[in-house]
Structure formats: C-alpha cells, structure tokens
Amino acid sequence: MFRAIPVVERLAIRRISDHRADDEIRAHAHLLPGWQAIRIMVAPPGELACCGGSLAEGCGQGHSPPSLRHLPPRRTSMPDLIETIEDGVATLTLNRPESLNALSGEIRLGLLESIHRLGHDDSVGCIVLTGSGRGFCAGGDVKTMAGRSAKVFEERAEGIRQSNRIPMLMHATPKVIIGMINGVAVGAGLSMAAACDIRIAGRSARFGTGFIRIGLSGDWGGTWTITRLIGTAKARELFFTGDIIGAEEAAHIGLVNRVVEDSELLDTTMALARRIAALPKVALGYTKRNLAAAETGDFAASLELEAVHQARCSQTEDHREAVAAFKEKRKPVFKGR
C-alpha cells in the first residue's frame, strides 16, 4: 500500500536504456526514444515517500505503480512552465524569457502533461497559453539544434513525432485554448499559436515561420493549421520567405483574432477566457469537435456529427438549466455536466 503522507509532486525526465516507456507514459513524454516521464514524490523531512520509482517500474519495493490519471494533481510549477488556475481558467506560461521562451525539454514535457490533465479537469473551462517577458515563443532552441540533428535519422524523426503530439493534443482536448501572444511567435512558436483555438495579440507581437532561414521545413503542424487559417497563397509566402510580420498584418490576414494594446492584453484575454470558462463545458467540448471535423470533413459528415453531438448535449444538466433559466428570466448557473 502507498503511505498516506504529505508529499510534493514534481515532474522530471530521465534516460532509459533497456526498455521503452509504456503507452500512457510515452503519451506524456516528449523528447526522443529512450526518454520517459517520471514523477518524483518528495516527502517532508524525516518521512519516506513511496514510491520513488517510475510509473512504468514502480518503487522497487514490490508495490504496484499508480496510474497516471489517479495521481494527485501537480502542485508545483516546473521552472520552464508555470501553471496557475483562477476562475475556471488555467494559464500556462512558458518561462524562459532570456531565450524568448524557446522550447526546452521541460516545456515540451510540461505542455503534454498539463494539457492532457487540464482537458480532464472539470473545474477548468478554458486554457490560456502565453509566454513570460517579451516573447510568446521563439520556437526550437537553436543552441541545442546541432546536438539533436547529429542523431541518426530514425531517432531524430521519432523525436519530432513526440514533439508533434503537443499540437495534436491542443487540437483534440475538449477545452478551448486561447493564445495570448505577448511578443515574438516564430517557428514552432508560431505553429503553437496557430494550434490554439483563439489568438489575441499585443500590438508589439511579431510573427514568422522562420524555418527556412535555418534550413528547416517546419513542424508542430504549422503547414496544416496556418494554411487553414490564412489560405494557401499567404501561407506559402510566409513559409517560403520566412518574413516577419507585425500584429496588424497578422490580424488582417486572419492569423490572429484581434490586436489590442500591450497594456490591455492580459485583461482582454482573461476577460474572454472567463466568459468561455463560465459556459456549459460539455457543449463547448462538442462544439470544438464539430469545428475540428468541419475543417476536413464533408457537409454530410458534419451534419451527422452535429446530430449526434446536439442530441448528447440536449441530455445534459446544463441544457436543462439553461431552458429553465430562460423560462424563469434569470441567469443560468452551469455545472459542467
């Protein structure tokens, strides 16, 4: 049995050599083959927290490892990724301001873990993704690219596939994700912004694909999402030239939803996030599914999906509450079920 003692839970990554992480762990671990996510349970002084092993292996004392979804929520933020939750809004802040929040292993791993967990958290209705300092995200860390590129082709390709799970998870999670673009969004940083459901930019924000300038072709699904946001012609121009554009042009071509003064960015974004978080969560999730399917499916398929999802939503407590509130001429109180 696991002892019920106070512990502080943190995430870490470690190298494994003679086995692969199981599917549930690998779904939350970025990086390359041979890396897996582990949870470190740090006990108070004088106590021994079980377990100290990985989720795949257990603690080494004969105890069965707990399932990822049954572990208590992460209580401390990772150094490179800060998480806060307030008024039903979870904010994930990339925290490497000295490098304009270039992606690190901790950021990738943290985003996978956090977005998956928050997607199943009934207390959260909306997720805001932003960066600290004067950058949203400068994409991959160029300083570490030489080491990653030196790996054999198969290992490098698998590493990119693992990283690409983040935009896929952003696309699939039932929670609405708002990108609060507070500065530079380049390369994978632009692809990350494009994977958000809504993007609000500060006036000083700058956008660019950037890949071609360092001899790369792009990842994080940017060629897919950006093409659908702004159309084939403009997407090709941005990818082929690597040009940087300002916030006003980004809004003009449909890359962002709106532009506000830098001083108003936080208040504007959080006001919208709180509005969305207060809406019926089940209906929001199915609405996001409908919109995602509409990007690639045909009209008949969308009609069928709408029929199924509308019927499902009509059976929720929130729908019944909305109908009752309308009849009683009062504001509805939604419970997310």
Automatic annotation (TrEMBL):
Q: What is this protein called?
A: Enoyl-CoA hydratase
Tell me what organism the protein belongs to.
Rhodopila globiformis
Q: Please report a single Pfam family linked to this protein.
A: ECH_1
Q: Which InterPro entries match?
A: ClpP/crotonase-like_dom_sf, Enoyl-CoA_hydra/iso, Enoyl-CoA_hydra_C
A GO molecular function assigned to this protein is: catalytic activity
Q: Which family does it belong to?
A: Belongs to the enoyl-CoA hydratase/isomerase family.
